[in-house]
Structures are given as structure tokens and as C-alpha cells.
Specification:
- The structure holds 3 protein chains of 3 kinds.
- By secondary structure, chain A is an alpha+beta fold.
- Chain A has 8 helices and 14 strands.
- Chain B folds into 2 domains: 282 residues, Rossmann fold (3-Layer(aba) Sandwich), CATH 3.40.50.11740; 45 residues, no CATH class.
- The radius of gyration of chain B is 21 Å and the shape is globular.
- The two termini of chain B are 31 Å apart.
- Chain C has a single domain, classed as Roll (SH3 type barrels), CATH 2.30.30.
- In chain C, a hairpin with a 2-residue loop joins strand 1 and strand 2.
- At the A-C interface, strand 8 and helix 7 of A face strand 3 of C.
- Strand 8 of chain A pairs antiparallel with strand 3 of chain C, so a sheet runs across the interface.
């Protein structure tokens, strides 16, 4: 049922009255239907025992739709992946939408549909939600916030502070796909790569990894700030040095070439379907084998090792065999010509 | 890596086996102290990215020169562009490099926070497109860069005039390399034995441009490419010149540079610009080292169209970017480096530009 | 100072070309390199082809690298 003939979201859709109800019924309840959501209580109630993981993530992306995904898919995978890298099996999500007045109904439906699909891939559902509509110009299309809870299996203890000297550092696949995909869609960049975002829920991969080695010490998803930020976070939290081998990092050729063209550092590019894991050296082979038999870990690679250090830092062994420091990235990456 | 995934003319110049031989040669052939200035900021970046500074023999010191437009653009020029960006109905367009550069009062990023419309473009043709799409606005492009970039700005100006895009303007703070090298070389405090000359500037101006510097001041010059193997070979060629007592202009980057440079680009640059004196941060005003928009294209000159007052401009206090640019000091000599001046809150431009000497030191070597 | 990357011309339409490097494509102006032709490798700077890459010279440079390696390692093959 379309509440507005122009196919646009109006301020009244957020006013709490009949239009709000119509929007919720026609888009959200229909698109995300599950037994808990359809009750439409003020709060979902759940039975639970054990250790719980909880996380929240707000999503803004320009453009809203990009090859390989959209803000809806991103909002689900972002939260699912934050749970997954804590070793938690995602149980349920909740979602909040801030919609700009005039936003196309049809686009909202597409976004909700992607959320439903991504939820199914991750084995989770959206059990509560909220919608607000703001005046034209007060938001950029739509902002989506998702909160998630997950169950941490017994014996799993994953923390950024867990890395120990001698441990191995692994990435689950090619780096920078999402960052270059989104950047190349922006106006004024004009680079066509044929890349698609790697945006994907990682719980199935993490499940396989934990089955191979429940003692995995650290997992993180290198989203904003990329591999450089994630490795620095791990080094700082664990009080160790990490040395990576630049030649071992998996990249798609299009990511490398787009970085050369635009003067970008691939280590800072965002990823939305990749993880970094640190584990004892003896677990490496089993974990890599498990990862490589999962579609989201096919290109998994051992990229470095953890070393003892007086001060936490991240080094790279460069292509010519020298060493350089990988520091915490600062600010947004912009294409440069110099 | 599979062959299909190869980046032609890049990967074969940065592979480990290739560079190992060059490094061995550099170590074997270099026994006397040699101070080399890499004139170009893109060389500085490549040197940092590949850890070349740490890999070369101790006798060889690499000093970063003034070839980074973000670093040498004077505060007054940056302030002027920010004033232009803050004007109503102006869309300011710039290469991404300049967005975070601090001016006297604010940088472009802050100006954007105050309501200025600032758009990052990859090419001058993108800025021209924005002008075509916004006929009721004035689109101002920040013309920074050296001889490699200036022709691309000249091309946009020519096209704007030919196709009647009257709302496209350029603030030209372009600079040219040979007069700056001449000024550096003639300075008594210069502590440099040899120049690693910029490959891409030279693709435009031709290697002959450095002949006066090499002959008059006895400083060896090697025009060099930007991959690690190129840079190592350039350094070997410079140390050989030094060992043999020669001071010539040699070209390592023969695949990209020819005698006489690029005549079409030079002609276009000469048509649209005329030489002017230019203020370089840290080097002061160097005669004939800038490019002003010629009389013929005056209608597209942003500062003639929109005169702005930047009498408040001053250079940041305590910042030694100037001495760093001339090779007299390194970032570690600066009291602000790593404390008050870090990439998140840069004081001087050498920290802003990712190819700036300070940023490169901080990023890759701190 | 100036980032420029080697890219191959895969299409020409008057003064505009499409160039390709490792699967990434972009429009490039040929105004500064009017005699460029299809299949040429050019140096691309800020959306403009600024110089043609001389493939023979590139091979010669690579040969020189190998020769240096040979000089430094006389005992090895070559």
C-alpha cells in the first residue's frame, strides 16, 4: 500500500499517526517479517541463558546503493560482523531509520529487502525497529542504525588484547574492495573498476574458524581505517609489535591499480566482509584450511606475526625487503595528484 | 601474483629480486659520504613507502626538497583561496591534496564547516564540468602544482574560453622547478651534493632544463622514475658521477622522458600563463618561479574577478618547514614535530601533505 | 610533486581517450599528447596523458638492472 501518490516519504510518515503505521506495516513488517517483530510490542522480549555479546553501529554511506550492496546490507553485516569477531553467534538485531523527507518509497523498500536478505545469510532477524523522518536537507537520504545481540559459545575468549609474541596474523581475503568500490562511485572520481563491495556477514566463516581452533585469540573486522587502523588497535591493546609482509597481503588487481591512479594507500581502505585474526602459530594451518573452504575465506592469507616490543607498533616488511612503520591513519582519504 | 594481475611498467620496477641487485651495487659502489636531495615530493613518498631510506648505505643521506605543492604554497595564497571559497555563490574546486592544509585562520575543511562549498576533483576537466552544470555559480579552481600539473590547468582554461564557460575561474599559484633549483643551488648554506630530479616534471620540460645547475654549481643531476628500482638506479648514477668527478644531467627515467620534453604541453602553458615572481614557503620570493594567468585569459583569473583581502596572513610560528624544505634541517630538529604538529592537527604544510617531508617521516619512519 | 601512472589507451574519441591500468579504467584527455594512438602506454597525470612510455627504453632499463646484478654477483650465472 502506497501512502503517498508521489512515492515519497513525507514528514507525516514519522509523526506517529496513521501514515507511520502504514509505513511500518507496508515496508518494515512486510519486508522483515518474523514472529517477534509482528507482535509489534514496544519492546521485544527474549529468553536467554549464557554469555551475551551486544553491539550497535550507525551507518551512513554515499552513495546509498553501490555495486555489491547498499546501506541496508551494510547495516546488517556491519553489526553481525562486530558480533562475529567477538566470537558471538548473532541472535537478533534491532534497527533504527532516520529518513530524509522526500526519500523514495521504492528505495526504502529495496533497502529493507537487502536487510532481510543479509539477515537470512547471517542466520539472524530484525525483531524491533524505529523510524523518524527529518526535514529535507537534515539527513542524506537515509541513516540506518542497527543494534545486535549474540551468543558467545563456551570456551571462546576473543579480545583485541589477546595477541602474544610468536602468534600468527591472518586476513580472510582481499583488502580494500569495499573502499575502492564506494569511492569509485562518487562524483568526480570517474574511475571504473568493475569491483563489487565485499560486504558480507562473516559469522559462517567465524563459526568454521572457531571449529578448527577455539583458542583463536584476536579477531577484528578492518572497516573504517582499514588494515592499518585494525593492526594498530591490536598492537596497542595487546602491548605488542606486529610485523606484516607487504607482499603477502592479498589485493585484487583493480584495487591496486585504482590506488595507483588516485594516490591512495590500500592499507587504509575500508573492508566490509573481511577479518583479521591472531592465533597461536600451531593453529595457523588448521584455521587457514577451514577459512579457504568457506566462500568468504577463499583468499585467506598469513600476512605477519606478533613480536614482543617495548612500545606497541606495526611494521611492514616492504617489497624491497626494507622495513617501514604503519601508523594509525588520520582523516579521510582523498584522491591526490601529487 | 599471476601475470594477469600485473601492473605494467610498475610491478617489474618494484620487485624484490630486481631491487636486491641494485641495493648490492649501491652498497658496493658507495664509500664516500653523499647527500642527495630528492627534489620531488612524490620521490619522498616512494622512498618512505618502500623503506628506501633505511635500506641504503649509511654514507648516503637522502634530503627531501621543495617539490611538494602543498608544502611550498605560501599561507597568503592558501588564505586567498579560502576567502574565495567563502564567497556566496562560489563553488571552490581543488585537488584532494589541498583540503587539509591549514591557512592563517582556518583551512578548507573548516571553511566547508562554515558553509563554503568545496568540491574535491581528480582533474581540472572535472572542475570545468562542475562549472557547466552550475551556470548560476562561479566555480573557482585552486591551481597548484608544478610543470606537470600547470598544462592540465592551461588546457581547462583554454577549453573554458573556447566553449564559453564564463563562470570558470582559476587562482594560479603554479610554480616552476628550474628557478627554485637555481635559487637553492646558489644559497651558500646549501648542504647537498647531488639532485635526484623529478621524472614527471621533466617529462614536460625536458632534462636540458637542469643543465645550468649541473654546470654552474657542479651538482650532478639524475632525472629519475618513481619505483624503487628507478630510485636506487638514480642513486647509483649520482654516486658514480660523484666518484668520477662529473656533474652532468643524466636521465634514468628514459621510458618516460625525452629530450625537449613535451612540446604540446609547453606551448599550451606558454599560451595561457606568463612567468611571475612567486613566494615559496621557506624559500622566500624567487624571481620568475611562478606562473600567472596571461592577459589573454584575464577574464578567468579568480583573483582579478574576485579581489580578496588577506592582509592578515602570516606563517605559523615555531614551524621550521622552510629549513626542512631547503635540506638544512630534518623534521626531528623541529620542536613541534610529533607533539604540537601531528597529521591530525598539522601546524605546517609539510605535515599536511602526505608527501610532505614531516608527514612522510611521521607516517613511515617515526 | 606529481603522481603519474602508466596506463594503456584502449579507446580514442577525438581528444578524449579511455585508458586502462590493471582493470581500472578512466577517461583521459589527449590534449597534451595529440599524437598518442590506440594501444600506447602513456603516463596519466590528473586525467591527462602527459607522455608516451617508450617500451624499448623500459626494457633497456630492466636489462641494465640485470647487468648490475650480474656485475655484483660475478660468480652467478648470466
Amino acid at each position: 500500500m502506497r501512502a503517498d501518490r508521489s512515492g515519497q516519504i513525507l514528514l507525516a510518515h514519522g509523526s506517529g499517526g496513521r501514515l507511520t503505521q502504514q509505513l511500518v506495516d507496508s515496508v518494515f513488517a512486510r519486508g522483515l517479517s518474523n514472529p517477534i517483530l509482528v507482535r509489534m510490542e514496544d519492546a521485544a522480549t527474549l529468553d536467554f541463558q549464557g554469555r551475551l555479546a551486544c553491539t550497535i553501529d550507525s551507518h551512513v554511506v554515499s552513495p546509498l546503493f553501490f555495486p555489491g550492496g547498499d546501506i541496508g546490507r551494510l547495516a546488517v553485516t556491519g553489526t553481525v560482523n562486530d558480533l562475529a569477531v567477538a566470537g558471538a553467534e548473532p541472535m537478533h538485531l534491532t534497527a533504527g531509520f532516520i529518513i530524509e523527507e522526500g526519500f523514495a518509497f521504492h528505495d526504502l523498500e529495496r533497502i529493507v529487502e537487502s536487510m532481510s536478505e543479509a539477515g537470512a545469510e547471517a542466520g539472524t532477524d530484525i525483531i524491533a525497529g524505529d523510524t523518524k523522518v527529518v526535514e529535507k536537507g537534515a539527513a542524506d537520504g537515509v541513516f540506518v542504525t542497527t543494534c545486535g545481540i549474540g551468543r558467545v559459545p563456551d570456551g571462546v575468549d576473543i579480545s583485541a588484547a589477546g595477541a602474544r609474541p610468536g602468534d600468527a596474523v591472518i586476513v580472510s581475503g582481499t583488502i580494500g574492495d569495499h573502499g575502492i568500490t564506494v569511492l569509485s562511485q562518487r562524483e568526480g572520481i570517474g574511475v571504473a573498476t568493475g569491483l563489487v563491495s565485499d560486504c558480507a556477514p562473516l559469522w559462517p566463516l567465524v563459526r568454521d574458524m572457531l571449529a578448527a581452533a577455539p583458542g583463536i585469540r584476536v579477531m577484528r573486522d578492518p572497516t573504517r581505517g582499514g588494515l592499518a587502523a585494525t593492526l594498530n588497535e591490536i598492537a596497542q591493546a595487546s602491548g605488542v609489535a606486529i610485523e606484516i609482509d607487504e607482499a603477502a597481503i592479498p589485493y585484487r588487481t583493480e584495487v591496486r591499480s585504482a590506488c595507483e591512479l588516485l594516490g591512495l594507500d590500500p592499507l587504509i581502505l575500508a573492508n566490509e566482509g573481511k577479518l583479521v585474526a591472531v592465533m597461536a602459530q600451531e593453529d595457523t594451518e588448521a584455521v587457514l584450511a577451514a577459512m579457504r573452504s568457506n566462500p568468504h575465506g577463499r583468499d585467506a592469507a598469513l600476512i605477519g606475526r606478533v613480536e614482543a616490543a617495548a612500545a606497541p607498533r606495526v611494521h611492514a616488511r616492504t617489497l624491497i625487503g626494507s622495513r617501514r612503520v604503519i601508523s594509525m591513519p588520520t582523516g579521510e582519504q582523498l584522491p591526490r595528484i601529487c | 601474483m599471476t601475470d594477469a594481475g600485473r601492473l605494467a611498467f610498475l610491478d617489474e620496477f618494484r620487485s624484490g629480486p630486481q631491487t636486491r641487485g641494485l641495493l648490492e651495487e649501491l652498497v658496493a659502489g658507495n664509500s664516500v659520504p653523499l647527500k642527495v636531495m630528492e627534489v620531488c615530493g612524490t620521490h619522498t613518498m616512494a622512498i618512505s613507502r618502500h623503506g628506501i631510506r633505511q635500506a641504503v648505505p649509511e654514507e648516503l643521506t637522502l634530503i627531501s626538497g621543495p617539490g611538494c605543492p602543498v608544502c611550498v604554497t605560501a599561507n597568503a595564497d592558501i588564505d586567498a583561496f579560502i576567502e574565495l571559497a567563502l564567497l556566496p555563490d562560489v563553488i571552490a574546486t581543488t585537488f584532494g591534496d589541498m583540503l587539509r592544509v591549514p591557512g592563517t585562520r582556518m583551512g578548507l575543511a573548516e571553511a566547508r564547516g562554515q558553509g563554503a562549498r568545496v568540491q574535491v576533483v581528480y582533474s581540472t576537466l572535472d572542475a570545468l564540468k562542475i562549472a557547466r552544470e552550475n551556470p548560476d555559480r562561479s566555480v573557482v579552481f585552486f591551481g597548484v602544482g608544478f610543470e606537470t600539473t600547470a598544462p592540465t590547468v592551461a588546457a581547462a582554461l583554454l577549453e573554458a574560453r573556447q566553449t564559453g564557460v564564463d563562470n570558470f575561474f582559476v587562482q594560479s599559484v603554479h610554480k616552476v622547478v628550474p628557478p627554485a633549483l637555481e635559487a637553492l643551488s646558489s644559497a651558500p648554506e646549501l648542504a647537498v651534493d647531488a639532485y635526484l630530479c623529478p621524472g614527471h616534471v621533466t617529462a614536460i620540460i625536458g632534462p636540458e632544463a637542469y643543465a645550468p645547475v649541473a654546470s654552474r654549481y657542479g651538482i650532478p643531476c639524475v632525472v629519475t622514475g618513481f619505483e624503487p628500482a628507478d630510485i636506487l638506479q638514480g642513486l647509483i648514477m649520482l654516486s658514480r658521477q660523484k666518484a668520477e668527478g662529473r656533474s652532468q644531467v643524466e636521465v634514468q627515467y628514459t621510458r618516460g622522458v625525452r629530450a625537449g620534453g613535451n612540446p604540446a604541453a609547453l606551448a599550451l602553458m606558454e599560451h595561457v600563463f606568463e612567468p611571475c615572481d612567486a613566494a615559496w614557503r621557506g624559500l622566500g620570493t624567487i624571481p620568475g618561479s611562478g606562473l600567472a594567468i596571461s592577459e589573454e585569459f584575464a577574464a578567468h583569473d579568480a583573483l582579478r574577478r574576485f579581489p580578496v583581502d588577506v592582509s592578515y596572513s602570516r606563517e605559523p610560528r615555531g614551524c621550521i618547514c622552510g629549513a626542512i624544505l631547503t635540506g638544512q634541517k630534518t623534521p626531528r630538529d623541529c620542536g613541534l614535530f610529533g607533539g604540537a604538529c601531528v597529521p591530525e592537527h598539522p601546524v605546517g604544510p609539510c605535515m599536511v601533505s602526505s608527501e610532505g617531508t614531516c608527514a612522510a617521516y611521521y607516517q613511515y619512519e617515526s | 610533486m606529481c603522481l603519474a601512472v602508466p596506463a594503456r589507451i584502449v579507446e580514442i574519441d577525438k581528444q578524449m581517450a579511455t585508458v586502462e591500468i590493471g582493470g581500472s579504467r578512466r577517461e583521459a584527455s589527449l590534449v597534451l599528447l595529440p599524437d598518442a594512438s590506440m594501444g600506447d602506454y602513456v603516463l596519466l597525470h590528473a586525467g591527462f596523458a602527459i607522455s608516451r612510455i617508450d617500451e624499448a627504453e623500459a626494457l633497456e632499463t630492466l636489462r641494465l638492472f640485470r647487468a648490475m646484478l650480474g656485475e655484483g654477483n660475478v660468480a652467478e650465472d648470466d
